[in-house]
């Protein structure tokens, strides 16, 4: 049976702007098909369909419940405001729908665990929609980082995710509204930074997390910009990140080991869909009299036939198909990746709210 036979049927729950990108990704993935779109009103669903030139075969619903009752919907992509995730994720899971959830996954790990329990109880695949994990460049970077001879032990990591929001964005976007996305820039942009740092450290939680006293909030108390540091005692590794709605666009990840270093400027969204690059240096030293370097960074190029969001849909659909057709168990890797990211995000928020105190990390709880 070829991959594109009996494709996984997707329903999109919510017509957020990011849903346009995922709708296209579902169309591009060979093992997925879009069967339904739901919004709070049928008018919004119809407008989404027109804007994205959807097939007449895609069903349009004016309520989320109606779509979740559709037997042709195997999986749901959910780009709703974070405050609504728990309610609708649990309902979707109880109705047997596999869940691709937009980040940040939840307002805190307790809510995350409620969603995850519902998925686990119903043998459903969970994944958050962080697309960059699925680009083949990401696997190539990890291959080099794990090469002890070329890279050595990871010592320093820095990541940043920022963009300068317009006046309209900073006043009206759901990401600056405390009742919709109360985590603000920490949840929206910081999720990527924390995820990249933990990816580098093989999803191992840091020993200590501390926000730096530079947090900027809007008048409603939502975070517009913040910094934090993470530390691993055993490895003697330190990481820092910066996330913001009020700075120029950045999507940086820098990793420095004892023997090598790696830098990528566009890790969240590659500059180009079909090819992505990063710089890698190993064994660099100053030459005589410190007038230059003995080696220059190597530019590594990695091509891909599908854009990274298409790769994400393809992988998610492959996992769902294994559960649905072959009786396989859900792959817990993705839930575990999301959960540790959520735990560290919670720790940063805790540190900010408690006067920038250092937070000692544990596997199941946070402690001030």
Automatic annotation (TrEMBL):
GO terms assigned for molecular function: nucleotide binding
Any one Pfam family match given in the protein's UniProt record, by short name: GFO_IDH_MocA_C3
Residues covered by the Gfo/Idh/MocA-like oxidoreductase N-terminal domain: 9-127
The GFO/IDH/MocA-like oxidoreductase domain, residue ranges: 140-262
Full protein name: Uncharacterized oxidoreductase At4g09670-like
SUPFAM superfamilies registered for this protein in UniProt: Glyceraldehyde-3-phosphate dehydrogenase-like, C-terminal domain (SSF55347), NAD(P)-binding Rossmann-fold domains (SSF51735)
The organism's place on the tree of life at top rank: Eukaryota
Family note: Belongs to the Gfo/Idh/MocA family.
Matching InterPro entries: Gfo/Idh/MocA-like_OxRdtase_N, GFO_IDH_MocA-like_dom, NAD(P)-bd_dom_sf
